[in-house]
Amino acid sequence: MSMLVVVTESVPFRLRGRLAVWMLEVRAGVYVGDVSKRIREMIWEQITELAEQGNVVMAWATNSESGFEFQTYGQNRRMPVDLDGLRLVSFYPVENQ
């Protein structure tokens, strides 16, 4: 079991309800729980099936150098990058409006 955090933006209510079955919604769109790897993978499958045009980041505790791993779904200015085995976040430039 490990700590899991999921942050959602602009996702359908049915996904938010599904996440609330497994985790506690501590703020609107922010879910926290202590789940197994199998449950974490099942939650990610639900996210990829139900998030539609929204975006999601999921982070969990690991024994890596940073102490956590994360993955993202949907469009966002932040994109994960791998730098010599360390996961960091890079930003896409702001589009001209």
From TrEMBL:
This is CRISPR-associated protein Cas2. It holds the Pfam family Cas_Cas2CT1978. InterPro entries: CRISPR-assoc_prot_Cas2_sub.
